[in-house]
């Protein structure tokens, strides 16, 4: 009998030490701060993570940022005729508080917006045309769609209001260990359900008409995500908020935020591709070995904390292999949707849209309905990232700069049908955002102790501000985990808690 107990205790002890062996305790009994943190990826996600890590861990810790391509990632510009134009993420909403804060901290400027009208094309004709008269537009919307657009507005506002709670929670230092926990604390099970339910179903439920969905919502989903109204309601709401007014971008290019944040964070930028990551335990400390290669050399280094700020789906080809993970960790399920941004310097073929005389074509941007014959999602006259005082938008009868979004590369015939003639064509093929519906779960934030993954949030909604929210969350989470402050992680009823803290 007594023997049996001893054996049992021995087994328990063995199991404990085995657990420590393959997944060491991340605690820091001595209270020592981490000495080195790595961030992989210098898009808005990685660069803002570096910024927030510096804020929370203080000036001593070494922060290394690895970037295999260009700083900015999916925020990028192309040069046409001596001016730069956004080819990736371009529009920021006035309620995107982290992005606003970055611009302020970095002393960057808001880019002035240049007015321009929008129309919706269905393959044969314009079915919706914005005019100079706000009241007339309102009247037309009312006439055509009844009160659908008011119902839509209320639905989006209610969601935004709940989403805005995140800034309060983060300002009070609260973090979440998963995207599910984060969404749940903002909008309860309703938000979680919205990441699984088609946008069209949610809108029909609140009384938005099918016609409004087909003619207004579908074109917005096509221009923002290259996908249809079957995408989840939550990401749909995020992009509808972005379709309202009060939109801005950064003078000189949105990517200036990324390079600026890395600089002010006093992080070391390594122009290198991380090729592998492996846990390394010695005694009871767990670290990660990152191996990397650049054009000039290759090497590896040990880090106490690692943040992966790039998508880990196979279709994105980060090139990172996970070695010695138990259980094994590999690429994540799902695909990224490919969107081609084609920037054309030329003359728009307004006849294509039913306007044989270009001087009578009043639109700056054309969205499209979900019409299989159409080979593009949108075409818009665009403005450079720097706008001088005397700038005016080019008229359709003049040569101008246009951006076309399409699911595939445009061939010559397609280009010739959209443009009467052109001087230059530049294309960027993006692994742009998740192909919603290609994975059923939201990826984890904590892959292992002290190893974090930022881009899972994109499966709830992909936007610059979403990456920034995830960055702040990871910096807080990493800090609390390191210092064992569990009362700051996954707390329930935060609205109430915060009120009583004040
Ligand atoms: C065409 C287009 C239009 C968009 N429009 C908008 C918009 O109007 N508004 C909006 O808010 N959002 C928009 N988005 C979405 C927005 O751009 C993204 O959500 C956001 O930029 C993602 O930032 P990120 O830092 O999370 O990822 P990324 O920008 O993809 O950054 C990841 C970085 O990691 C690097 N990397 C990958 N693997 C490695 C490795 N092994 N080693 C080192 N570095 C590595 C990559 O080179 C990349 O720079 C748009 C996106 C696209 C493509
Ligand atoms: C979300 O879905 C679950 C399961 O279907 C359901 O029980 C819950 O009531 C839903 N929440 C809301 C707010 O609709
Ligand atoms: C949207 O696209 C998906 C995948 O391409 C398709 O399965 C679905 O039926 C489409 N939904 C609508 C409403 O067209
Ligand atoms: C564009 O704007 C940025 C930011 O204000 C500035 O640094 C840059 O010099 C400007 N470039 C030109 C060509 O005006
Ligand atoms: C412009 O569009 C019209 C209508 O689709 C088409 O017939 C014509 O070939 C296009 N190209 C030019 C150069 O006009």
Automatic annotation (TrEMBL):
Coiled-coil annotated spans: none
GO molecular function terms noted in the UniProt entry: prenylcysteine oxidase activity
Lyase as UniProt keyword: no
Stretch forming the signal peptide: 1-19
Keywords annotated in UniProt: FAD, Flavoprotein, Glycoprotein, Oxidoreductase, Signal
InterPro entries to which the protein is assigned, alphabetical: FAD/NAD-bd_sf (IPR036188), Prenylcys_lyase (IPR010795), Prenylcysteine_Oxase1 (IPR017046)
Pfam families with a match to the protein in the record: NAD_binding_8, Prenylcys_lyase
Domain Prenylcysteine lyase: 128-491
Keyword Signal assigned: yes
GO biological process: prenylated protein catabolic process; prenylcysteine catabolic process
Lineage: superkingdom: Eukaryota
Family: Belongs to the prenylcysteine oxidase family.
Name recorded for this polypeptide: Prenylcysteine lyase domain-containing protein
Originating species: Knipowitschia caucasica
Lineage, top ranks: Eukaryota, Metazoa, Chordata, Craniata, Vertebrata
